[in-house]
């Protein structure tokens, strides 16, 4: 259901001299719902429509999915001749308020800075070793423990599991998207076609197993795994003490 109080507060800021706002649900379809918004001003009443998307199915499972669709609508509705115009894309925040996120030319992510050294350094050092030492083994166990912990978190969603199966084959950052980055001739079209066809077969073999849906990292590669120097020293002390109970816990590396 739409947050009418927050929507009215947003509309009063967007449009001047608003004396009354009426919101009424128009109906519900396969993809979502529509709401009629009547804004009364001094010069008369103007009608608008607010559209929502359902969070299940059609690749709409995450809020970012729904935001992406609406941001594209904001651009393309206004590019098409004789099409209704889109005015803005709205986001409902955790506190219930509504703000505009439309009109961006590009989008960026602000994040924390990881400390330490990435795991590529360890892999490079393996080339000079005949066998893994205790420190290397403890780091591997730390990473395996981290993955086991996040994979233990399950979600009961048949549609999300099926979406993930589709994405594994057809997403731009998965199989077919990666194939598109290959230089011409590295892998023949026939080979790629055969792999993709077999992968599609596996989608339907795995569809009944939706109960296995688990949290994943999604990008767990050496460049995204950083061990802090304090952790390295801790592992060394643990190895030196030969304390079999000591281990590297999940918080000891970042990604």
What brief labels describe this structure?
255 residues, alpha+beta, Phosphorylase Kinase, domain 1, 2 domains, 3-stranded antiparallel sheet
Structure description:
The chain has 2 domains: 97 residues, Phosphorylase Kinase, domain 1; 138 residues, no CATH class. The protein starts with a helix and ends with a strand. A hairpin with a 2-residue loop joins strand 2 and strand 3. The C terminus is likely disordered. The chain has 255 residues and is of the alpha+beta class. The radius of gyration is 26 Å and the shape is elongated. The relative contact order is 0.11. The strands form 3 sheets. It has a 3-stranded antiparallel β-sheet, with helices on one face. Helix 5 packs antiparallel against helix 7. It is built from 8 helices and 8 strands; from the N terminus they run H-E-E-E-H-E-E-E-H-H-H-H-H-E-H-E.
Q: Given the C-alpha coordinates, what overall shape results?
A: elongated
Instruction: Report the sheet with the most strands, covering strand number, pairing sense and barrel closure.
Output: 3 strands, antiparallel
Helix/strand-derived class?
alpha+beta
Mean pLDDT: 89
How far apart are the termini? 36 Å
Rg over alpha carbons? 26 Å
- Order of strands, main sheet, comes to 1-2-3
- Percent helix, as a range, is 25-40%
User: Would you report the number of β strands?
Assistant: 8
Low-confidence stretches: 242-255
Strand/helix succession: HEEEHEEEHHHHHEHE
| Individual helix count | 8
User: What is the total number of structural domains?
Assistant: 2
Beta-strand content: 15-25%
């Amino acid at each position: 259901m739409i947050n009418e109080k927050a929507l009215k507060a947003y509309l009063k800021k967007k449009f001047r001299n608003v004396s009354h706002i009426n919101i009424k649900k128009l109906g519900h379809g396969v993809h979502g719902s529509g709401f009629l918004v009547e804004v009364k001003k001094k010069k008369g009443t103007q009608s608008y429509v607010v559209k929502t998307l359902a969070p299940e199915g059609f690749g709409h499972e995450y809020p970012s999915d729904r935001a992406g669709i609406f941001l594209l609508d904001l651009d393309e509705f206004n590019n098409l001749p004789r099409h209704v115009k889109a005015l803005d894309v709205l986001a409902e925040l955790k506190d219930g308020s509504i703000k505009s996120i439309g009109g961006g030319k590009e989008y960026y992510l602000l994040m924390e800075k990881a400390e330490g050294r990435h795991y590529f350094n360890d892999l490079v050092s393996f080339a000079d070793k005949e066998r893994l030492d205790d420190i290397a083994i403890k780091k591997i166990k730390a990473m395996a423990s981290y993955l086991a912990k996040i994979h233990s978190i399950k979600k009961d969603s048949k549609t999300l599991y099926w979406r993930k199966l589709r994405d594994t084959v057809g997403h731009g950052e998965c199989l077919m998207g990666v194939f598109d980055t290959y230089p011409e001739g590295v892998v023949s079209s026939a080979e790629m076609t055969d792999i993709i066809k077999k992968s599609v077969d596996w989608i339907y073999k795995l569809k009944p197993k939706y109960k296995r849906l688990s949290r994943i990292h999604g990008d767990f590669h050496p460049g995204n795994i950083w061990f802090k120097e304090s952790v390295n020293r801790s592992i060394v002390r643990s190895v030196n003490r030969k304390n079999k109970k000591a281990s590297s816990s999940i918080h000891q590396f970042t990604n």
